[in-house]
Amino acid sequence: MTERIVVVGAALFDAGRLLAARRSAPPELAGRWELPGGKVEPGESPEAALVRELREELGVDAEAVARVPGEWPLKPPYVLQAWTARLRPGSADPKPLQDHDELRWLAPDEIWDVDWLDQDVAAVRELSARPGGEIR
């Protein structure tokens, strides 16, 4: 049996808005929106991977806050875990450095205005259903 590989996605919040990132590659994902993040490397915790991926993809200094309940299948053996995250004080503003060609901060009433990747739909739905969550 192949061991599963965890991909972390960041529900990065600022003033109640959620950051969405539009994929520029690969071609089958280009133009769709996702929670930024990436693969957890061997020996790395999901939280550390999230911080590293946000630095590499967006040029920000962020911290993981809490894991969003649930786990969503990607192309086997990959699975998606989502984490809430926030920018650390003094962090640069996010910029699309790799894998993305546009970023958008979405207010709670704009969450469904973008074409989310299928697996991210489930994660965003879970975020929006959380009592006392950041998205309402």
TrEMBL record:
Catalytic activity: 8-oxo-dGTP + H2O = 8-oxo-dGMP + diphosphate + H(+)
PROSITE patterns: NUDIX, NUDIX_BOX
InterPro entries cross-referenced by the UniProt entry: MutT-like, Nudix_hydrolase, NUDIX_hydrolase-like_dom_sf, NUDIX_hydrolase_CS, NUDIX_hydrolase_dom
EC numbers for this chain: 3.6.1.55
Cofactor section: Mg(2+)
A Pfam family assignment: NUDIX
SUPFAM superfamilies: Nudix (SSF55811)
CDD domains found in the cross-reference section: NUDIX_MutT_NudA_like (cd03425)
Gene3D superfamilies, per database record: Nucleoside Triphosphate Pyrophosphohydrolase (3.90.79.10)
Record-annotated Nudix hydrolase domain positions: 3-130
Top-level taxon of the source organism: Bacteria
Keyword annotations from UniProtKB, A to Z: DNA damage, DNA repair, DNA replication, Hydrolase, Magnesium, Metal-binding, Mutator protein
Family assignment from sequence similarity: Belongs to the Nudix hydrolase family.
PANTHER family named among the record's database cross-references: 8-OXO-DGTP DIPHOSPHATASE, NUDIX HYDROLASE FAMILY PROTEIN
Protein known as: 8-oxo-dGTP diphosphatase
Naturally occurring in which organism (per UniProt): Streptomyces spinosisporus
